[in-house]
Amino acid sequence: MLSCFVLSGQVQSGYMPLKELFKKDFLIGVAVNSRTITGDAGKFVTENFNTMTCENEMKPQSLLYFPRQSPMGAPQPQGAQAGQASQPQGGQPRQDMGGFSQTPLKLDTINGLVFNWTSADRIVEFAKANNLMMRGHTLVWHSQTPAAFFNDDKGNPLTKDQLFARLKVYMTAVMTHFKDVTFCWDVVNEAVSDKEGETYRTESPWYKACGKDYLAFAFRTARSINPNVKLVYNDYNLVNPAKLERACTILKELLDAGVPIDAVGLQGHWSNDITAEMLQAVIDRMTALGLKIQITELDVTTYTSYHGDGAKHQVQETQPYTKQVEDNLAGSYKRFFEVLHKNAGKITSVTFWGLDDGRTWLSGFPVRGRTDYPLLFDKELKPKKAYYSVKSVYMK
Predict the structure, then answer these.
(1) Which candidate in 149, 175, 218, 306 could, as Cys together with 366 as Cys, close a disulfide (CB 3.0–4.6 Å)?
(2) Secondary element (H or E) of residue 164
(3) Mean pLDDT of the chain, nearest integer
(4) Can you give the C-alpha Rg of the chain in angstroms?
(5) Of 200, 114, 215, 89, residue with least CA distance to 164
(6) Do residues 77 and 85 lie in contact, with contact meaning Cβ atoms separated by under 8 Å?
(7) In the chain, what is the greatest distance between 2 CA atoms, to the nearest angstrom?
(8) Residue 95 and residue 353: Cα distance in Å, rounded?
(9) pLDDT of 107-166, one tens digit each?
(10) CA torsion 45→47→49→55, rounded to 10°?
(11) Residue 19 and residue 22: Cα distance in Å, rounded?
């Protein structure tokens, strides 16, 4: 065990890098962008993690280039729901989103689709240079997919068969391009409805064009492209009993039909009210279906839950990082990792959605201008009490 950790001249007593802490349980990863892989942040990534996920750079909006379409607004946060900040549909990513404002675009035309590999390739090169594996995120999603993807050159909606043909071209190009660095792919993201009485997210452009068949098509296509990569269904708030039931209904139907799904991704955008029993219930239900578990986007808001109606009842002002806030966060992380540690044989990877509190999407979401403190490290990359609470689970 390492007794200290040195970063920028600072020594952190009793610190153990995360990949050492979790090495007997599961792979440990972090969501990154082009700014996370340079300087002290990049060094911190290589010292603590063995996997990475592109925060936005492997999403369709970032990879597809539609030069005649207006640039996009800010990236859509994970799990956006009614009442939360939304984003227009659309085409070429904003320059600051992909981080390629001063870099020539690396464009590649494949069967009529134009791909921009610039930002993603920069992160992939960092991963390869530092022996890090990558989670592919994400192939099929209702958000951050250009509206033009669903239409022909004249703006007319594609038929189901036409859209499936285009999706196959897209998936083949992307999965092939990143084949030697990705160990899994989030094939379909957030297809389960949040609405009572509705199983599928029916407002999704994928569902509107293809019905529920797009899920089976996407997973079967992914398997045909790369039989060796793990295929994941990814979603948020599956700790909610009603949404868990809907997810199990969809996944069981797919699995019974022979659709190849290897794991379920629990995004893990949690809050302090999530209990150990709720998390254990999800793990039990999904493993009963024969699926492995991945925690794909872990952070813990220090405010109340923003899922469902929670988005309408948020404190608007930034709360200070008091001892009570610190203790509550530490208690939640300890509670969650006690469950994860106990179920390590069922879990293949855990990924934090952000490196530190200075690089979290939750500062500004769901309330613009509000600061959150949802990760194990503060904005100076120093371990917080939450880190040591997690470490205590492994030091027993």
Answers:
(1) 306
(2) helix 160-177
(3) 89
(4) 20
(5) 215
(6) yes
(7) 64
(8) 22
(9) 899 999 999 999 999 999 999 999 999 999 999 999 999 999 999 989 999 999 999 999
(10) 0
(11) 5
